Amino acid sequence: MMKLEFEGEIQALENKILDHPHQDDLIAFYGSSSIRLWETLEEDLSPLNVINLGFGGSSFSWCIYYFDRVFARIKPSRVIIYVGDNDLAAGIPPEKVLKKFRMLTKLVRMNYPDVPMDFISIKPSPIRTHLLPEIQLTNQLIRKELLALGKASLIDVHNSMLNENGVARPELYVEDQLHLNAEGYRIWKGVVRKHLGI
């Protein structure tokens, strides 16, 4: 029996969806804590109608596990995903992360065959500099996969977060050097707005 680590958060997301006043043209952001902690998401992507469905320090496996529950009462016009950071940190190699990515995108396509889908590239972070080659390889594999899927694309935040030495810029992160601060989210805001044409 899996320990339902995020049960409380998932229940909160289910309530959030029920309480959301505008279901039309809704863009769903789904994934791990980099989405959950993007507290200014709605404001940053105004005038678009967006909902933040990030939870905990989740992985691909948890996003797959909870997908049907989280999306049971929602018909998004677009799905934007960020996850994978924690998979690589747990020692899962890029090729296996890609398999999990395929499982998650299959769920999106089964439920929403005509809805555009985007994946935010896995970010670098100072505390995980040792994982940079795996992060970059995973992003490359996912980019290639998205091209083959159709109506799917990569939102590349990764390169904007590197300094001239090709490593993560520490000034974009909070004290743990893993999660983003306001400056880091400003970069995400700019890249995502440009990608969505706003």
TrEMBL record:
Superkingdom: Bacteria
InterPro entries assigned to the protein according to its UniProt record, in alphabetical order: SGNH_hydro, SGNH_hydro_sf
Pfam families, per database record: Lipase_GDSL_2
Keywords on record: Hydrolase
Molecular function, one GO term: hydrolase activity, acting on ester bonds
Lyase keyword on record: no
SGNH hydrolase-type esterase domain boundaries: 38-187
Protein name as annotated: GDSL-like lipase/acylhydrolase family protein
Gene source species: Marinoscillum furvescens DSM 4134
